[in-house]
Amino acid sequence: MTTSPAVAPEGLPRFTWRQANARDLRTKGQLAKRRRLPVRPPVALVVIDGREFELYRDHDTIDLEAERWRAIRWADAMLRSNAVILDTETTGTDPNTDRAVQVSVLDMRGDVLLDTLVDPGVPIPADASAIHGYHDRDVAGRPAFGEVLPQLSTVLTAPDRPVIVYNSRYDGRLLRAEVARVRSLDYAMAWSRGFSWKCAMTVYGWFRGQWDERRGDWRRHALPGGDHNAVGDCRAVLRLIETMAEAVDDPPLDPDALDD
Length: 260
Fold this sequence. Notes:
Elements: E1 6-7, E2 13-15, H1 17-22, E3 25-26, H2 28-33, E4 36-38, E5 44-48, E6 51-57, E7 61-63, H3 64-79, E8 84-90, E9 100-107, E10 112-117, H4 126-132, H5 136-139, H6 145-156, E11 162-165, H7 168-182, H8 185-193, E12 196-199, H9 200-208, E13 211-212, E14 217-218, H10 230-246
Parallel strand pairs: 2-5, 8-11, 11-12
Antiparallel strand pairs: 1-2, 3-6, 4-7, 5-6, 8-9, 9-10, 13-14
Helix pairs in contact: 3-9, 3-10, 7-8
């Protein structure tokens, strides 16, 4: 007769190695050798030579190599497309209340389609100036967002054109708020839905293969080579896409080499 496993102090059942194998449960070490990453909490513990190891279900894991290849294919597809890259610099970090002070758009050849400073209509806080380097004197007399909107809409509009942003959730919300101020909320929502937003930060998370257990999502990484200038950050995103697309020739991912 098989006895029920003991319950560990953490509330997890404690299995023998045989019981764990019968249930297709794996340790982190076993998963790492197969280039898989657990994305759900452990479901049990196994005791080996007096040491406890957490156990995970196979279907609660992600295939790191598959995700890496998904990022490579996406990057290659973007380079072959008519996509554009967009970035903004702002008065702060709240997309609902802060304003744009610079808007830039780049195509996949690296040509600048739009790069303009914007008068936000409000003072630029010192902490924001310390990041992007723009002060009230730099934007005085520059066009307001409403004057920039027609040109911005033109460069973003094309059949099946992806609009790539590093952290599209932030920039997308900020631009919707800006459009709503000069037109209406309904217009802003329709304007935003008219574009195919693509988040390069999410794709870079697939490529790096690190999971944020607290957020239950891919770890967010700072933009490599970003300089907090909108056109400079667009160029950094383009370089990142090129780097990911070229990784097709890289050696297989070594999970042990990932950052902690």
